[in-house]
Amino acid sequence: MTDSADTRKQMIDAIWRRVDALAILRPNFFRQTPFRLTLVFLCVYVFVAALVFGYIYLATSTESRAWGNVSVDARVKSLREIDARDGHAAVVAKILGDDAVEWVFAKGAFDNSGQVLAQNGRARMEGKGLPDTVIQQGLKQVSSGNPVASVNFFSPSPSDPNCCRFQGRVVRLDDNFYIYVAMDMSWADHGFQQEIKAVAGGGLLVVILGLFAGTLINQEVTRSVARVTTVLERVQEGDLKARISVRDSGDEFDALSLRINQTLDRMEKTMGNLKYAGDAIAHDLRSPLSRLRTRLEVSLLEVGKDPSQAHDALAGALEETGQLLRTFQTVFSMSRLQAQGQAPDQALFSATELADDMAELFEAVAADKGLEFDSEIEKGVRAYGNRDFLAQALANLLDNAIKYTPVPGGVTFRMRHTSQREIEFSITDTGPGVPEKDRGRIAERFVRLENSRTLPGVGLGLSMVDAVAVAHKGRLEVAEGPGVFDGRGPGLRTALVLPPVQG
Amino acid sequence: MNVLIVEDDAEAAQNMQKGLKEAGIEARLAGDGAQGLEAIRAEAPDVIILDRMMPVMDGVTMLQTLRADGVDVPVLFLSALGELEDRVSGLRAGADDYLVKPYALSELVARVEALGRRKDKDSIETVLRVGDLEMNLISRVVKRQTKVIDLQPREFQLLEFLMRHAGQSVTRTMLLEKVWAYHFDPQTNVIDVHISRLRSKLDKDFDRPMLHTVRGEGYQLKA
């Protein structure tokens, strides 16, 4: 019968897996916060419930006692009246003549020696126990000064050992004549006990369900937390691409997960930037360094043949080194800008003044070459950024424009607010421009297009401008210039656009 | 002029010392901040070249100590930290100038000379004179021999700077910094062009040129 054995085994496995998934058997379970919170909540509930319950108990039992007293006192009163009117014998007769209606009450009379003088049906049914108890208590408590005493006792009944609790009075009518009336409270008790059982049962059910709910909540929360910790562990181990899967339930865990994911995105980007920066610096410097080395090697050979060359050779090498250092500075600045993500030390400054200064500086260069230079600079424009980096970027763009524009020709420099309140510095020239397919490339490092190889420079200018623009949350635009006109053009239009100033 | 170099890299310090000697400037060496302070107390230098990053006592702390002691000898910070905020914080600590490594020796010499001459800056002059060139700071009139030279405002500022540092080499970076107030390396010839313009106004009609180009360094105004 291996089939049924297998099925049974599978079922047990399935159940076990379910139970295991609840994690209740893990050693850490009871220390986990959601579970502890549930416990706290349950404790509070139980405490409050106990208070309420206690109150109800007290109120109910008080009321029950009061009701019992009232009933008993009424019977006592009637017996007293009979005694007053017709004497002791009449009372005895009354007691003996008790009928089924009065079954709840055990009544009797006794003398001061404890001898029973009369018992009603109920008292007789209870056997010796009941009257003995009453007589004992009564004789003890009642005296001439204190004719009425309350008695409360439990007298097991012959038919039912769990019954009954009696509440009553012993009254001294005479030196030798005492009566008692005791009421069987078991019905009241019974009702009350049912109530308590119901409440207790209900309470227990709530606690059990609460613990179960607590377990489920705990499992849910732990799972969500585990998702986060797992991803963070993976990131720590080097997987920068690990992200938390967001469930779209809109709860706090999703919000937390989204935030963590965003932070990880930024971290990945920064790490990527740093790595890129390191690689870039190494890459960018390799060529100029090897050029320098080659030059020095050649110089060594030449100086070996002709020692008088030494001074010039060294001076040339020094110049090359100077150029190398400048390249290094540019590459380094760019990489730091990119690694940091934004330009350092930004402040509010006058873009108009910056534009005016740049125009003044480069108008001379243009004039010196024989080019026309026009500037249209909007007044009163302010921008936010690092003035020196921006000046360097603009210097690059202006120098490029002048460098690549042949004579006769012209360069125009504009600065204005765009319709979206951005700050735009634009430079247009009437040179040959850049073909559209190449325009995307020219901002890459060390790219120099075919028609510029003969001109001095290493091709870092535009990539520096791009880095500066991005570091200011702006952009570099490269587009076609004013067009072909009079044999010149189409030219190039470059623009450095800064975001609007806040506030 | 005597200079104190406070630098923990012995080789770099010695190179600086040699370079300055070539320019006719004597330099003492101190290997750290404590030695530097001692050397200053022994004999006050004209200019202090201070490395920013040193063990035990770093440059900024030493400078602050100096200034707190009331020593106002001009200080040139040398630093591998090139960020703008480092520069600003260095200047705020009491430095008078700031050079970032790697630097050109000629740049260093030019700036040290400029700082050494700064003592004269506090005197209230109304007229600057270099050779037969005269600049009246109140009337903004420039005359060479007897001829009035017409200058644009920026050219005036440029000439003023050159005159205040007459006989010293000033680098392009220094000019961009002091005359135009921008701190970056003008890798292009933009400064050269402005100097040429000034030179033509200054020297064209005269037989003795005053504004010289110093190869590999910068410019110098000399009588």
Structure description:
The complex is a heterodimer of chains A (503) and B (223). Chain A has three domains: 75-187, Profilin-like (3-Layer(aba) Sandwich), CATH 3.40.1840; 252-338, no CATH class; 343-498, Histidine kinase-like ATPase, C-terminal domain (Heat Shock Protein 90, 2-Layer Sandwich), CATH 3.30.565. The model of chain A is unreliable at 450-456 (pLDDT under 50). Chain A has twelve helices and twelve strands. With 503 residues, chain A is α+β, with helices and mostly antiparallel strands. In chain A, the strands form three sheets. Chain A has a five-stranded antiparallel sheet with strand order 2-1-5-4-3, sandwiched between helices. Chain A has a five-stranded mixed sheet with strand order 7-9-10-12-11, covered by helices on one side. Chain A has helices spanning 2-21, 33-86, 88-96, 121-125, 129-141, 186-236, 252-305, 310-340, 351-369, 387-404, 436-439, 461-471, and strands spanning 105-110, 116-119, 148-154, 165-174, 177-184, 347-350, 372-377, 382-385, 410-417, 423-429, 475-480, 492-498. Chain B has eight helices and twelve strands. In chain B, helix 6 (153-164) crosses helix 7. Chain B is elongated and about 60 Å long. The mean pLDDT of chain B is 86. The interface between A and B is medium-sized, with 29 and 24 residues.
Give me the secondary-structure topology.
The complex is a heterodimer of chains A (503) and B (223).
Chain A (H helix, E strand, L loop, with lengths): L1 H20 L11 H54 L1 H9 L8 E6 L5 E4 L1 H5 L3 H13 L6 E7 L10 E10 L2 E8 L1 H51 L15 H54 L4 H31 L6 E4 H19 L2 E6 L4 E4 L1 H18 L5 E8 L5 E7 L6 H4 L21 H11 L3 E6 L11 E7 L5
Parallel strand pairs in A: 7-9
Antiparallel strand pairs in A: 1-2, 1-5, 3-4, 4-5, 6-8, 9-10, 10-12, 11-12
Helix pairs in contact in A: 2-3, 2-6, 6-7, 7-8, 8-12, 9-10, 10-12
Chain B lengths: L1 E5 L3 H13 L3 E5 L2 H10 L4 E5 L7 H10 L6 E5 L4 H9 L4 E4 L4 H13 L9 E4 L2 E4 L4 E4 L2 E3 L3 H12 L5 E2 H9 L9 H14 L7 E4 L3 E4 L2
Parallel strand pairs in B: 1-2, 1-3, 3-4, 4-5
Antiparallel strand pairs in B: 6-7, 7-8, 8-9, 10-12, 11-12
Helix pairs in contact in B: 6-7
